[in-house]
Amino acid sequence: MKRFLWPLAIFVLLVGFLAVGLRRDPREVPSPLIGKAAPAFDLPVLEQPGKRFSPADMRGKVWLLNVWASWCESCRDEHPLLVELSRKGTLPILGLNYKDKPEDARLWLTRFGDPYQLSVADADGRIGIDYGVYGVPETYLIDAQGVIRYKRIGVITPALLQEKILPLAATLKK
Amino acid sequence: MKVVLFALFMLFSLAGIANEEQRIRQLEEKLRCLVCQNQSLADSNAELAGDLRKQVREQVAAGRSDEQIVEYLVQRYGDFVRYDPPFKAATALLWAGPFLLLAAGAVILVIVLRRRRDAPEEAALAPEEKRLVERVLGPGGDPR
């Protein structure tokens, strides 16, 4: 009986590792930017190309930076949630329109609604690289000091918003 | 003479370009694409990989060292972009894991071998087995 104990223990251990490992998303690479200052940029505003925006303009506020594009299909999945959040007005959302054509992006916003306080146009994707973007949509929660506190790679789900992002934003506001 | 000098100059600058191309290629092979994770930047057709290759090329042209360029990408994408991640607390298991498993295997092997050596060569026959053997083979017979 005892001789079966060791293989059994190893088997249980292996199942444990697999149970944890297989449920993780290997595409989600932890960002080294959490806890660091949001990279600075100065980009034209999508809606008013004459104006420019820089993250420093949001100092003193807790806000979301949402990376989106009209060519990104999963952006459409999370879009209604962002529109709903923007109606509540509790957490400002700013858009980083990543590698998009301004005409397409504007059309997309008129068609599906514009939850953004404003969007900036990162036409060549250079600022996206500074933010470590590799799969749109991505969303950053930035605090009043301009530090990135949380990053979501992929679609924001209602559960994630309610259980993680909004509570974290509430504690950051204090 | 002038023609020879010109030809030499061209040759050297061509060699320089070839060197730089080789350097860029080597760098891109050391870096991992984040979109198709099992491909290097050099191999990947993902759009982001193209953008990152452009960055590498520009920075090489601007005279930045390989370490600086790798550091640039690590700051943005983390150690994940390196096929050769540095040894630190977060990667300790990754580096030491195989050796730990090997050591555990060696320990188990030694224990098993010792046990086998210390175990009696052949189990002695129980009295009633011995009786059975004697009945079949006749008394005094060698049970072997």
3D structure, described in words:
The complex is a heterodimer of chains A (174) and B (144). Chain A is built from five helices and seven strands; from the N terminus they run H-E-E-E-H-E-H-E-H-E-E-H. Chain A is of the alpha/beta class and 174 residues long. In chain A, strand 6 and strand 7 form a beta hairpin. Chain A has one domain: Glutaredoxin, CATH 3.40.30.10. The mean pLDDT of chain A is 92. Chain B has two domains: 2-86, Orthogonal Bundle (Helicase, Ruva Protein, domain 3), CATH 1.10.8; 87-144, no CATH class. Chain B contains five helices and no strands. The interface between A and B is medium-sized, with 18 and 15 residues.
Stated plainly, the CATH topology of the largest domain in chain B is called: Helicase, Ruva Protein, domain 3
CATH class placement of the largest domain in chain B = Mainly Alpha
Broad structural category of chain B: mainly alpha
- CATH architecture of chain A, by name, is 3-Layer(aba) Sandwich
Low-confidence stretches of chain A: none
**Relative strand content of chain A:** 15-25%
**Biggest β-sheet of chain B, characterized?**
none
- Would you list the SSEs of chain A in sequence order as H and E? HEEEHEHEHEEH
The helix-and-strand class of chain A reads alpha/beta
Q: Which whole number gives the mean pLDDT of chain A?
A: 92
Query: Given the structure, what is the number of helices of chain A?
Result: 5
Of all protein chain pairs, which has the greatest interface, and how many residues does each chain bring to it? A-B, 18 and 15 residues
C-alpha-based Rg of chain A, rounded: 20 Å
The radius of gyration over CA of chain B amounts to 34 Å
CATH superfamily of the largest domain in chain B: Cytochrome C biogenesis protein
Strand content of chain B: under 5%
Q: Alpha-carbon distance between the termini of chain B?
A: 99 Å
Shape of chain A: elongated
Examine the secondary-structure arrangement and name the CATH architecture of the largest domain in chain B. Answer: Orthogonal Bundle
